[in-house]
């Protein structure tokens, strides 16, 4: 079983729609969670950290479910510029607290 | 504010040639530094990380090596490149292992 798993997609979504991704992680002792965005042929950029109580940043909402060991990202009113690959990242004690990266979910927003 | 630099942006090298990629961070002290590689359409693979000058941890055995000669400088090297070394090489920094990482613009390496 992979330590961090994501649906690779692609998710093809019309502009203005709401889209949600999930990411599962294997280590119940994980302590830090993040969503990154990566545009084609560019470096990953931090989108948002994920807090236990859930957090929102504009059209983006991130949630953590420790019992089921997954995090989610919800994008409302999607824009063409949201097209990118979204990477789920988890900090795991077993890996000496290094970040473990999911392979990413590709999102394509269509006009 | 902190910035991270990587160079060169692109590199085409023949098999068997040496490699040296450099990464520098500005605006912070004693950062944790990381080298990742990303193959086309794949996730990030951690190659090396460093928590201080001269301290290097290797995650994947291969023909690459890393060095940290100064607090904010991280170098990735190879004596002889293989075809399989092609990829997108990313340097990242963080305050500590619990926090988010910030990436440089990356070096796209093609080994022919």
Structure characteristics:
heterodimer, A: 111 residues, six-stranded mixed β-sheet, 11 strands, B: 112 residues, mainly beta, seven-stranded mixed β-sheet, four-stranded antiparallel β-sheet, globular
Task: Provide structural commentary.
The complex is a heterodimer of chains A (111) and B (112). Chain A is an all-beta fold and 111 residues long. Chain A contains no helices and eleven strands. The radius of gyration of chain A is 13 Å and the shape is globular. Chain B has 112 residues and is an all-beta fold. Chain B is 0% helix and 58% strand. Chain B contains no helices and eleven strands. In chain B, the strands form two sheets. In chain B, strands 2, 4, 5, 6, 9, 10 and 11 form a seven-stranded mixed β-sheet that branches. Chain B has a four-stranded antiparallel β-sheet with strand order 1-3-8-7, with no helix packed on it. The mean pLDDT of chain B is 93.
């Amino acid at each position: 079983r992979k330590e961090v798993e994501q649906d690779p997609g692609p998710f093809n979504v019309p502009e203005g729609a709401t889209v949600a991704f999930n990411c599962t992680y294997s280590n119940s002792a994980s302590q830090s969670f993040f969503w990154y965005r990566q545009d084609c042929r560019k470096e990953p950029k931090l989108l948002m950290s994920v807090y236990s109580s859930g957090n929102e940043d504009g059209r983006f909402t991130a949630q953590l479910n420790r019992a089921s060991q997954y995090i989610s990202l919800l994008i409302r009113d999607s824009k063409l510029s949201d097209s990118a690959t979204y990477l789920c990242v988890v900090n795991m004690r077993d890996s000496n607290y290094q970040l473990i990266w999911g392979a990413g979910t590709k999102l394509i927003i269509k006009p | 504010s902190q910035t991270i630099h990587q160079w060169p942006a692109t590199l085409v090298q023949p098999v068997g040639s040496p490699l040296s990629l450099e990464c520098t961070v500005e605006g912070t002290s004693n950062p944790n530094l990381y080298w990742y590689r990303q193959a086309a359409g794949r996730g990030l693979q951690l190659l090396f990380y460093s928590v201080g000058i001269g301290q290097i941890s290797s995650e994947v055995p291969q023909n690459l090596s890393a060095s940290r000669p100064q607090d904010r400088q991280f170098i990735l090297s190879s004596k002889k490149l293989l075809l399989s070394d092609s990829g997108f090489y990313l340097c990242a920094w963080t305050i500590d292992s619990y926090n988010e990482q910030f990436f440089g613009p990356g070096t796209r390496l093609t080994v022919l």
